[in-house]
Structure formats: structure tokens, C-alpha cells
Amino acid sequence: MTSAETPVHTRLRDLPATFWWLWTAQLVVWIGRFVVPYMTLFLTSSIGMSAAGAGLVVAAYGAGVVVSSLAGGVLADRFGRRRVLIGSELLSVVVLVAIPLVDGTLLIAALLTVYGLFNGAAGPVIHTMVGDLVEPRHRRAAFNYNYWAVNLGYAIGPLAAGFMAEHSFALLFWCQAALVLVSTCLVAAKVPETQLPAPAPVAGEVVRAGRGDGLMSVLRDRVFMTFAAVMFVYSVVYVQSMTTLPLVMTEQGHPSSHFGMLLTLNGVLLCVLQLPTARYFQRWSRDLVIVVAIAVTAVGVGLQAAASSLAMYMVTVAVWTLGEMGSHPQATSLTADLADTARRGRYQGVYGVTHSLAMAVGPVAGGLVLDSYGSRALWLGAAGLALVVSVLLAVTARSRQRRVAAVMEADAAARAAVEPPVPELARS
């Protein structure tokens, strides 16, 4: 275990006030995260598309997110985190309002792509801001609280979304637009710019690489890019829960509200268990936690091959939720600790691509497997991929631990250059 991972008890007051306003803004957005989980149902039920065709349209959104995830990280480093976050959310509101008002598959696909181009920037920018605001010893706790906000929102929103979808899919788009606008207002009123000044050059490979050569230096970072590539494969498995799972349940005769219940179950479990398990996970290396968590995810996904009743689906969702709570926040905090101060946005942008690119690839691959081979092959294949990911992460863990130790020295130098660092941001 590196010095950055030495067990630390983080109290609420150890995290700055600005972090909690950002946390609240994130919570509001995720309460209204209605559109993507129900997009495949919208396209198949209202537009009349096949599973594979719906996957292609949803992939258009994913393609937009791939671009904006990278662009958001680069722009956040260059022009400031706050400006990029507010801009991306305002533009997302405009497109969300427009989508239900148009007809035609091609036009809907085009608008989803534009929505992805605006919306995808927000996630990497928020993660970058958390890394800016919180000192390294409290980051694991901060990212767990951040992920808790995401899932608290999911515990509140999707159940209502399921019932809204049974009456009008347009309500999903317009309600999400309204909540994104509320979140934007919170950021504009309460969250100042968080970007720290770049430190003076410090001896060491990580810092030298981080100055002057931008995104390409991140792409040449073998330690980080290996981690990002492996997590991309995991994300392809994960997105099946939002794209092909509702299609499988619909084919089995489940109403859309049943899928909403599963999303709510996922969110409730994460809300109840995320923080207690995070304190327990703090005793162990993040790499070990991630490896075990993804193996547990594989078990839950594989069990879906035998599921047909709502009760059985609830069991499978409970299992892979246990894996989810140990993988996502740990991986995001690890990305923050692998990134030096000068390129923190770029690292989070590239890491964000692992999920956003999976949003483009996953629906197409999952839809094709579902149409060609059926749900059993889909879930067993996804479980096998997750097990491969777990093994690869275990094999490459040592190199990441060495890199984190080196980056922590550079981060300490950057924070020492700001007097006082976090408290001043919190009061501004």
C-alpha cells in the first residue's frame, strides 16, 4: 500500500464547502438522469426500431460523448473547469428540450450525437474539480461521496421515470432538462474556479512529461493507458445494464416500470452501503478492491442468464451492485492520483472515454449478440469479459502503485505553492 493509500479517517469537515456544493449539483443532475436508460425502450416502443437499430442510434449519443469527454478534459485544463462545466450543461438543456419535438430516426440520432457532444464533458470536469479541491489523503473518501451522490439520485429518479415512460417519453427529456438547469444554477452561484496554478518543475518522470506536451503525453503514459484500456472492456460490460437489460426484460413480458424498480434497487443499495463499505475498503489497496469488485460483478452479470422473474432479477442486480460500489469510485480516485496537477483534466477526460466509448460500442455489440444468439449468450459472454478484466488489473497493479507514489510528491509541491490552498477556495 502506497503512502497515498495509508488508512485515513475522513470527516465531513475535512472536505471543503465548495466540494459539497459541487456534490449537491451532481446529485440534482443524477436525480434527473432519465433519458439514456430508457432510450432503447423509446426507440423500440415509440419509433418501432429493432434492438440492433436502437443500439446504433444510442451509439450516436455515445460517439458524441467520446469526443466531449476528451474535449472537456483538455478545455478544463486550458480555459478553467467552471466555465466548461456551465457551458456544457446549458447546451445540453437546449438539446434535451428539442429531441421530443422532432420526428425521424436520422434526426433523433443527430440530436443525440449533439447532446453527447455537450453532455459528455460534465463528468470528467466534475472529477477534475474534485481532484483539485481535495488533498490526496482524502480523495478516496471524496470520490466515494461523489459516487454516492450519483447513486442517491438514481435511487430517487428512475422509479418515477419508469411510470413517466408509460405515459409519455417526452416527459423524460423535459424533466431531465429542468433538473440540469437547476444544477447549472447551483454551480454558477456557489462553485468558484478550482484550478490550481501549475507547479514549478519538480524532478521526476511524471512532472517532466506533464509540462508542455498536453494530451499526447497522457496517451504515451503506458501505465495509465493500460489501466484505461482494461477499464474500457469493463465499461462495455457495465453499459449492458442500461441498454440490453431493458430489452431482454421487455421480451420476457416485463413492463418498463419493472426496469425502473431495478434501477431504483441498484441506487438504494448503493446509497445504503456505499459509505459503510468505503470505510472498510479504505483498509485495502485500491487495486485489490477493484480486482475483487469486478470479479463479483462478473458473477452477478452471469446470473442474469438464468433470470426471468422480477425477484430473480433483483437478486442479480444486488450481486453486481456489490461489485459496482467497489469498482467505479475506486477507479476514478485512482485516475486522479495517477494524474499530475498540470494535466488533471486531460487524464480525467481520457479516463472518461473508457465509459463514453463503451456507450458507443456496448449498445451495438450487445444488441447484435442479443439479436443473433439470445440473452443467455449475452450474459455469459459479458461475465467472461469481466473476469478477464479482473485478471488483467491484478497483473498490472504494481506499476500503478509505483506511479501513484511518484505523482503524490508532485501534487504536494503544487499544493504547497498555494497559501492557503483548499480553505481559500471554500471561502471564495
Automatic annotation (TrEMBL):
This is MFS transporter. It is found in: Cell membrane. It holds the Pfam family MFS_1. InterPro entries: MFS, MFS_dom, MFS_trans_sf, MFS_Transporters, Sugar_transporter_CS. Residues 18-401 form the Major facilitator superfamily (MFS) profile domain. It is a multi-pass membrane protein. Keywords: Cell membrane, Membrane, Transmembrane, Transmembrane helix, Transport. PANTHER family: MULTIDRUG RESISTANCE PROTEIN MDTH, RESISTANCE PROTEIN MDTM, PUTATIVE-RELATED-RELATED.
